Amino acid sequence: MHVLLVEDNALVASGVKAGLQLQGFGVDVVGCASQADAALKSSHFDVCVLDLGLPDEDGLHLLARWRRQGLELPVLVLTARDAVDQRIEGLQTGADDYLVKPFDLHELAARLHALLRRAAGRTVDWIVLGDVKVDLAAGQAIREGSIVDLSRREWALLRALLQSPGRVLSLEQLRDSLYGYSLDVESNAVNVHVHHLRRKLGSDMVETVRGVGFRLGRVQGGSC
Amino acid sequence: MRSLRVRLLVWLCLALCTLWGGVAAWMFAGMRHELRSVLDDRLIASARMVAGIVHQFKPHNTSPEDWGPMLNVVARDGVACEVSMIRSEVQTAPTHDAMDADAVSDEASGTAARPALIPASPLDAPRAKTVKTGRAGDFADTASEQAAEPTDSQVLARTAGAPSFQGPLPLGFSSITKGGKPWRTYVLEEHGVRIATADRIDVREGLIHGFAYTIILPFVLALLASMVLMWWGVTRGLRPLESLRQELSERPPGDDSPVAQGRQVKELAPLVQTINHLLQRVHKAIERERRWSDDAAHELRTPLTAVKTHVQVAQMAVANAGSQMVALRDQPGAGKEDAAPRPISETAQWQMTRQALEQAGEGVEHLQHTLEQLLLLARLDCQPVSEDAGGSRAMACGSEPACAWEALEKAWGLAATAIPSGSLRLRWLPRQALNDARLQDLRVAVPQPLLVSALRNLMENALRYGQQASGEPGDSAVLLGLRHIPQLAQVGGDKPQAMPVNPAGYVEFTVIDHGPGLSSEDCAVATQRFWRKQHQAHGSGLGLAIVQRIAQCSDGELELLPLAQWQQHKGYAFEQVHNGLAPEAATGLVVRLCLPVKSCAALPD
Asked: What CDD domains would the database entry show (chain A) (predicted)?
């Protein structure tokens, strides 16, 4: 799951990035609004964590601009200002959730999960795909009653596919979700992870759409 | 002098009295002079009339016995006339007409005894003939010489009751005291007869005073009337000032809009302008303070977030690493039998790291709690203390009035999760009406987040400090109560205090713990900022200060008192509260928070 973290304070950004990565998120950090714009144009993100106090543009202003441009990315706003009217203003501007600093990293992760779940149109955080039950909150995949051991990248791939069931995701999108901005990714790294996922969860878990990318298989049989 | 009106009136009266007093004194002096002249003229005229009559009816023989019946006059009090025969040959002799004002008004006690002293009269001619011409050249003699000469005169007639004017009276006017009374006399000698007419000076003065009264009385009355008129006029004139005062006094504490009254009045416009400038400055200062607390929140929270996040990352990393296996060969003190790989979580370093991170996390939590409390207090301080009993000013945050029951339950939930074993220890008071719909509908004039924060502070304090060191968990129960009271009353107050009144009554929240409690002295200071009974204790010492401030903002009341004192006053069924322990063994703290009911809410009977 690919998170865009827009935070100008390097200390906070590095802490949040490390904390989210430890909880299975792929995180890219930008320090200002212009970089955030550039990142959104160049890469695919599943969710954005936006700090309101940015050096070049007010966070709420940036968010309002995004919403005017039709960007539907779920946005969780982080702020140090906790007055009720500011929260209301933030939510009315288009934020999907609101967290006041200092926050708990687990809470942040849980809220991001909830945002993604709502964005995918689900109400619970586990998915049944044939004989596989995926518990996103616990980070577990259970096949035929036993827990399947998945690596961090494999989890990120599964999450990315689950985030957009039925939609074909390109190789670049999946690579962004798995690795973020890392430039030294092998060209067939995504394919390798797809192969591992198929081996662990069944070959029909991921469908290949030739020339385009991959999508979640068995989606017709999946239930929430 | 505090009243501008009184001040103006005093100045006006002073000016009026001084000016009109001066005028009156001037008039009075002129009038007195004129009156004395007139009265002196009357003396002269009387003397001359008597002289004429005496001359006309003078008997041929000049023996005094013949005069008796002729001048037997009874005069009114204060006026006297005496006619006497001059035996001496020495006479003053007028030689010409001297009917001028100088002669009349001249005092005989002066040096000039001019011929004019004897006024011209129809009686003059015969008398002039009797005057010896040889003495005619002595006109320039002094009056004292002339006065000395007629000492051998014989009184022919005198007004009844009048004293004798025999003696060294000079011709013309003089003042003497006879019979204990001051007299103004005029002496005329004609045709061998000396006539002295006299007025009592005190009667004259009485006349003058009478005149003065007739002048002063209308003046005083007019002054009084003009004071009333001035009072009315000044009151009317000061009406714009009064309306300005009224506008300012009716202004709510948080209102800093410009003052409208008095702008059109030339004298008031600069004052109103100054007030508006002052309001503007105050508004800016409050804004600055609000912005400051926001900025402070931002500046403090951001680094705190960084610390907290990194501590959590480290905790997560340590937890993840704990499951990894490590060979303990390198561990100091490890023997050969320990060479087999074991989880890292069993190593001493890992334990130390985990504990250190846990403590760092606790420190960060404490810091965060203190910071939140400080910011809340700073925001509450920015709000003016309410003046009206409804406490609507405390609603400046723009939130809806809080439902007391919901807030209590919410705070209950928060406190129960924040403090270990909290959910086991929190209970309702024995007589709490749990299903009373009216209680559940009560709304108080405090925003919901503030009320929840206040109640949570009270409950967490009770849970944290209300635990007996060696008691059963049941003894450490924290009891909560909610009820409606018609008016504020201090349970533990020694002195009756003036309490604010809210027509809709008050909601009383009661939080009772059974811990060591506080003494009455401690209760009095416990709401001070940064007060802690034990400095090493958890907490920032701001919780009760915040509750106190919330109570002040909404015109409510916070009271802390020892449990024993509360029970004495309350007569509460003791065994129900305290599980049958003796009353004197009861320790604990009772905190009562009373907040005004929002008037629009449904009221219980």
From this structure: REC_OmpR_PmrA-like, trans_reg_C
Give the ipTM of the model, two decimals please.
Answer: 0.71
Paired tokens of A196? 């591992």
CB B462 within 8 A of CB B455: no
Tokens 């219980």 -> residue: B604
Give mean pLDDT in consecutive 10-residue pieces for chain B, a chain of 605 residues.
80 88 87 90 89 77 55 67 69 37 38 36 34 35 38 69 73 83 86 85 87 83 88 88 85 78 83 89 85 78 90 89 67 55 78 88 85 79 53 46 86 83 80 79 83 88 75 70 82 62 84 84 83 71 86 86 78 50 66 81 42
Dump the DSSP string for B231-267. HHHHHHHTHHHHHHHHHHHTS-TT--PPP-TTSSSTT
Please state, as a whole number, how many other Cβ atoms lie within 10 Å of the Cβ of residue B483: 18
pLDDT beyond 90 at A175: no
Residue B90 contacts residue B150 (beta carbons within 8 Å) = yes
The residue among B299, B305, B362, B364 with the most chain A CBs within 10 A of its CB, best to mutate, is B305
Please tell me if residue A104 touches chain B, with a CB cutoff of 8 Å: yes
Put simply, whether B355 touches A (Cβ < 8 Å) is no
**Closest partner residue to A12 among B306, B320, B399, by Cβ?**
B306
CB contact under 8 A, B309 and A15: yes
Chain B CB contacts of A82 under 8 Å are 297, 375
By the CB < 8 Å criterion, does B323 face chain A?
no
Chain A residue at shortest CA distance from B399: A84
How many helices (H) and strands (E) would you count in chain A?
Answer: 8, 12
Sign of the Cα pseudo-torsion (B381, B387, B393, B394, in order) = positive
pLDDT per position as a tens digit, A99-119: 888 889 999 999 998 888 888
Task: For residue B364, list chain A residues with Cβ-Cβ distance below 8 A.
Answer: 102
Give me the residue label for tokens 């910071």: B371
pLDDT digits (tens, 9 = 90+) for A42-96: 888 889 999 988 888 888 899 999 999 988 899 999 888 777 777 788 888 889 9
d(CA B395, CA B495): 31
| Residues counted in chain A | 224
Residue A19: its chain B contacts at CB < 8 A? Answer: 309, 312-313, 316
Size of interface A-B (CB pairs under 8 A): 73
Helices (H) and strands (E) in chain B, counts: 16, 14
Radius of gyration, CA atoms only, chain B: 55
Q: Residue B175: enclosing H or E segment and its boundaries?
A: strand B172-178
Q: What is the rounded CA–CA span in Å between residue A151 and residue B487? A: 66
Tell me which residue in A82, A85, A105 faces B309 most closely, judged by beta carbons: A105
Distance CA(B37)–CA(B298), nearest Å, equals: 99
Which whole-number Å values give the CA distances from B387 to B13, B279, B402, B597, in the listed order?
41, 19, 20, 15
> Taking CA atoms, what residue in A is nearest to B305?
A102
Flag if A19 and B301 touch (Cβ within 8 Å).
Answer: no
Which domains are present in chain A? 1-118 (3.40.50.2300), 125-214 (1.10.10.10)
Mutate to test the interface with A, among B294, B313, B374 (most CBs of A within 10 A): B313
